[in-house]
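=== RUN LOG ===
request id: a7f3
mode: sequence -> structure
chains: 1
length: 250
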Amino acid sequence: MRSFVSFIFLMVSSSSLFALVTISPVDIGSKPGFSTKTALSLETKRGNSEKDNYKGSWRTTYDSNTSFVTWLEFSGEYGKSNDQRDTNKLFSHLRHIHATPLENLNVEFFGQIQDNEFKLIKNRTLAGAGLRYKFSSIFDRDRAYIGVGGMYERIRYSSQDPLENNARISTYFTYTLDFSEKSQFSYMLYYQPLAEDFRDYVKSHELELKLHVIKKFFLQFTLSYEVDSTPATDVKRYDFTQNTSFVFEF
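=== RESULT ===
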């Protein structure tokens, strides 16, 4: 346990080059014991345009095989165009999912820390809890979940915008279809409105295609559309991202 804690501390200290590994749901008992996934994408252009962009992520999971699964994830992105920094963001997420006496119902607890220089978010921390329900399979190779809960959020901006302390409702829907033994398609929707004002919300849509290449190596294509109804001053309400990554599982 001490070595695992040391490993986690090392990952936190060096997470500046860590994008989300995968959006597919994690099931209790799907891969007992410790497992790790890492993803990396690099882009370099020289000539008429000068650009460097780096994205990476790391997820470590422990699955008890019977009662719970816990994972810790780090991700980040850094980019420059013509020697001017245009991307700089970090993300870390901890989640614990525990079984209940009801077969398809789990309880989950989560915490998150992130920053995004170009959305003027100096620091966003949150913690929450909720319930996750698993729907019956339609095609025998698919999984769908809905989650409902609540969370407390604290946001510090690098602009003159005031400090925010918010209570939000946290809801999500996620669906994964395995169309071969190791390749899959996934979709995830997150919707997090303020508890006292649903006009203030954070919402995201993500599509992911994960293709098995060889052994523990995968190619992953991701589309992401995020909306913040009340961002910092002079920041756009939405972000659209397309990403291609190499993923390794071990």
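=== NOTES ===
The radius of gyration is 18 Å.
Residues 1-19 have pLDDT under 50 and may be disordered.
=== END ===
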